[in-house]
Amino acid sequence: MSQLILHVNAMSAKVEDLAGLPVPPATETWQPVSHADFDALVRQAIADAGIEISQAEYGLSKPDEGYRHRLFGIYHTRDEILEGEVGAAIGFRNSTDQTLSAGLVFGSRVFVCDNLAFAGKYVIRRKHTKRILNDLPGLIRRGISQFTDQVDAQQRLFERLQATPLANTATHDILVRASATGVISFSGIRKVREEWIAPSHEAFRQRTAWSLFNAFTEVAKSYEPVARSERTLALTGMFRREFLN
C-alpha cells in the first residue's frame, strides 16, 4: 500500500506533472510559490545535506478554479530508524489556493504495514506572504539540517515503545487521553481499540506500547492528508510524553 494516502478530492501525481502547472498571480499580501519550485528547493537542500532519496510520492488536490492546487508529498530516504523495520521520510506540502502554508515535517515509515508517522512538529511552516521567495531557501536548508537529530529522537522513542509492555487497562487510559487531547476523535477510540485487540499485522500482536502506537497509525491511513499529518504529529508528541519524559 502506498505511503501517501489520497482520497476523492486528490490524485496521485509525478514530479514531471508539477512543471506545467500554472501559478496564480500574486496579490499585495499573498505570494504563491509554484509546486515545481518548492520541490526543487527541497530536493536541493536534501542533496546538499548528503541525504539520499530512495522514492518520492506526490499528490495533488483537484484544482480549484481550474488551476489552483494543494500539493502533498513524501520523500522516502535510505536512512533507517530501526534496522529493517522503520525508515526515515520527509513529508512536505504547498498550496497555490491560499489554504496551506509551505511546510516540511519528518516522518517514519514502518515497513511491515506501510504506516507513516510524523515526528514532533513541522520543521518549517511558512505562509505565502511577501518575501517568501527570499526566506524559503534558507528556511528549508535549516529545516533539513535537523534531519539527523529527528531520526535519533524517533529511534529513542520507538526503542522505548518496543520495550514497554502494555496491559489493556493502561491502553484504555491512553485511548481516553488521546481523545481528550485531540489526537483522535471520540468515535476513533473504537477503531483504534479494535485494531489493538485484533491487529491487521502479525508483527503487532505483542502487547506493547509499540503495538498500540501502530494501531493508531493504522487507523490514520483513512484520514485526509492534512488531518493525517496533524493527528500523527500530535500522536508522536503524546507517546513521547507518555513513555520518554
Strand % is 15-25%
The count of strands amounts to 7
Name the helicity range.
40-55%
Radius of gyration: 18 Å
Oligomer: single chain
The coarse overall form would be globular
Compute the number of helices.
8
pLDDT < 50 runs, ≥5 residues: none
Distance N to C terminus: 33 Å
Mean pLDDT: 90
Structural class: alpha+beta
Largest sheet: 7 strands, antiparallel
* Total tally of structural domains: 2
The run of helices and strands is EHHEEEEEEHHHHHH
Task: Walk me through this protein's architecture.
- There is one protein chain.
- Helix 5 runs antiparallel to helix 6 (188-197) and helix 6 crosses helix 7 (209-219).
- Helix content is 41%, strand content 21%.
- It has 245 residues and is of the alpha+beta class.
- It is globular and about 55 Å long.
- The two termini are 33 Å apart.
- Strands 1, 2, 3, 4, 5, 6 and 7 form a seven-stranded antiparallel β-sheet that branches.
- The protein has two domains: 10-147, no CATH class; 157-243, no CATH class.
